[in-house]
Amino acid sequence: MASPACHWVRSVLSTYLDGELKSSTAQAVRRHLKHCPSCREHLRQLEETWRLLDEADAPPVRPGFTARMMKRIVEEKAIEQMEARLRPQRLRRRVLRTVTGLAAGLAIGFALYGWTGRPHEPNSPVEREVCRHIAFFEDADLLDKIAVIQAIDQLTHSPGTTNGT
Amino acid sequence: MPKAIAAAIGAYEHQGRRAAVADYDAALMIAFQKGGDLAFQELVERNHPRVIGLAYRFTNNAAEAEDLAQEVFLRIYRARHTYKPTAKFTTWMFRIAANASLNALRARAKRRDDLSMTLLAGEEDHPAGPADAESRSPDHLLHQRDLRDKVREAIQALPEKQQVAVILNKYEGLDHADIARTIGCSTMAVKSLLARARDNLRNRLFRYLGSIPDRPSDV
Description:
heterodimer, A: 165 residues, mainly alpha, 3 domains, B: 219 residues, Rna Polymerase Sigma Factor, Chain: A, Arc Repressor Mutant, subunit A, 2 domains, 0% strand, disordered C terminus
C-alpha cells in the first residue's frame, strides 16, 4: 500500500514531468524517487504514456491555405461593403417607420379625443350664463368661489334666466 | 517589408529584441489594424499550420480542420478593430481555435452518423503510402495503425478541458501559464487538469506501455 509520501509525490509527478515544480519541491521528489521503486515505476509509465501521444498522426496541411484564406477575406470584404451600403437605407426605413407610427398614433389620439373628450358646448341660456362665469370662477379664491356658486345658483333659479335675460 | 509592418515591429523592437521576436504576431496584427492587408496575409502564413494542427488534433479530419482554421482567421479578421495586444497573440489565437474546435465537436456529437463519419475520415486522411508498405512489415503497420487509433481515441475520450490542456501542452508546447491564459483558468487548475489527463491516458493506454522503444527522458 502506498505511503502518504507516495501519494504526495504521485500528485505532483505530472507537474514534475513538465518541469514546472519549484526547485526545492523537485528536489524532494527526486529524493523520494531514489528510494521508492513503486513511484519510479509510476513515473516511467506516465513518461511512456506521454511519449505514446507522439504516435498520433501529424496534422496534414494542404498547400495553398493562405491563398484560399485571402480569397475568403476578399469575399468577406465584399459582404462588409454591401452591409455598409445597406446601412443608410435601413436607417432611412427605420426613421420612416418611426415617423409613420407617430403620425398614426397622433391621428388616432385626436380622433378619440374628438369623440370622447371634447368639452361640451353650452346650448341653453343657463349653461351659457354659467360658462360666462366660469373664467371668473377659476380665478377666484375659496371664499369668492362660495359667493360665485351662490350667485350662479341665484341666477339659475331666478325666473328671469329661464327666458335668456 | 511594407512600411506599416516595419513601423509596428519597430515599436516592439524598442522594448527589446526578445519581446520583438515573441510578439511579432501582435505587431503584425497592429499593422493590420492600421490597414496593412499584407500584415494579415503574413499572419495567416506564419500561423496556419499551428491552427490547422490544433483543429486536427480535436477533429481528426483534415477537411474539417482546414474549415475551422479558416473560421478562426475570419474571426481574427473581424476582430481587427477591437484587438488589443494585452496578451500574447498566439494565446488569443489558440483560445479562438480551441473554442471553434470544441464547438465543432459538440455539433458533431449531436449528429447520429458521428461514428461512421470519423471512420470514413480516418480512411481518407491516413492512406498507407507505397513507400510505407514497402519499408515496413504488415504486422508492424497494423500495430502502428492500431496504436495510432488507440492514442486518438484516448485523447478524444478525455473531458473537454483535459483534452484542450493536453493538446496545448503536448502538441503546441504551451507552458502551464499560457494554457491557463488560453482556457481562462488558474495555473493550479491547469496542473490539476494535466495530472488527471495523464492518469486517464495511462489507464486507457496501459496495454501499449512498453510497445515503443525507450527514449532518454527530458527530466
